Amino acid sequence: MMHMTLYWGKKVTILFDSWKTDSWTSYFLSLLACFLVSVFYQYMEDRRLRFKLLSVKTQKLSNGSAALNSPLLLSNFASRGGKWAASRFAGAILFGVNSAIGYLLMLAIMSFNGGVFIAVVVGLAIGYLVFRCSDEEVVVVEDNSCACS
C-alpha cells in the first residue's frame, strides 16, 4: 500500500518497484543516492546558467566587435543572431536534462518517506551552497527554488 502521509521507516519504494529498501544498509544507500542526485541537480543548474551567461556575452561580442574563440557557441546562425543557434540547442538540452532530474527528485519525495525528503532537501541546499552561492559573477538570470524548474 502506498503511503499518503509523511512516514518514517526503512521500508520505502523509490521511483521504481525494483528500488525497494528492506534493510538499514539499503535505506541509507538509497538516501545517499538521493542526496548525490540532488547535489548533481544543483551542479547542472549552475552549468546551465553559466552557459546561458556565456552565450549572451558571446552574442553581444559577436554583434559588436571581435567574437570569442568558442566553436561550440558560434555558428553561422549565431553570428547572424538567428534563433536556431547552436548555443540555443545546447541550452535547451541542458534545460531538458535538468528538468528531468528535477522531476525525478520530486517523484522520489512523493514516496512520502521522511528520510528521502530530508536527503533531497539537504542535497539541494548543499549543492546550492557549493555550486551556486559564488560571488565571482553576478548572474542576472531567473533563480527559482523549485526543484523542477
UniProtKB/TrEMBL annotation:
Q: Which GO terms describe its cellular component?
A: plasma membrane
Question: Where is it predominantly found?
Answer: membrane
- Which controlled-vocabulary keywords does the entry list? Copper, Copper transport, Ion transport, Membrane, Transmembrane, Transmembrane helix, Transport
What is the superkingdom listed in this entry's lineage? Eukaryota
InterPro entries registered for this protein in UniProt = Cop_transporter
Residue ranges spanning the membrane: these are 24-44, 89-109, 115-131
PANTHER family to which the protein is assigned, alphabetical: COPPER TRANSPORT PROTEIN CTR1, SOLUTE CARRIER FAMILY 31 COPPER TRANSPORTERS
Q: What is this protein called?
A: Copper transport protein
